[in-house]
Amino acid sequence: MRDILLDPDDAAIAKAVIALAGSMGLEVMAEGVETEAQRNFLTELGCLAFQGYLFSKPLPVAEFEAFMRRV
């Protein structure tokens, strides 16, 4: 996702993957989302699931569970 807003090829790949998944009745989870702009761009393409540093750094299981209880 790092260059999705800068590189037209990266943007085209993301758009194609999301469209293909949608045509197959599948959902897409974007990994490596680090900025609101990336999330907004992906949302406009129809991707509604994300993970990455925008939301949290990687966590051990116990910390993840505590994090999820707070959200």
Account of the protein in words:
- It is a single chain.
- By secondary structure, the protein is mainly alpha-helical.
- It has one domain.
- It is about 50% helix and about 5% strand.
- It contains three helices and two strands, in the order αβαβα.
- The chain has helices spanning about 10-25, 35-45, 60-70, and strands at about 30, 50.
- It has a two-stranded parallel ribbon.
- Helix 2 links the parallel strand 1 (about 30) and strand 2 (about 50).
- The protein starts with 7 loop residues before the first helix and ends with a helix.
Strand and helix layout:
Blueprint: H1 8-23, E1 29-30, H2 36-45, E2 49-50, H3 61-70
Parallel strand pairs: 1-2
Record keyword descriptors for this entry.
globular, 2 strands, two-stranded parallel ribbon, single chain, 3 helices, 71 residues, mainly alpha
Query: What structural class do you assign from the helix and strand content?
Result: mainly alpha
Gross morphology is: globular
Spatial arrangement of strands, main beta sheet: 1-2
Calculate the mean pLDDT score and round it: 95
Number of strands: 2
Following the backbone from N to C, one meets helices and strands in this order, namely HEHEH
Helix content: 40-55%
* Oligomeric description of these chains: single chain
Report strand %: 5-15%
Cα-atom Rg, whole angstroms?
A: 14 Å
Give a summary of the structure in a few sentences.
The chain is mainly alpha-helical.
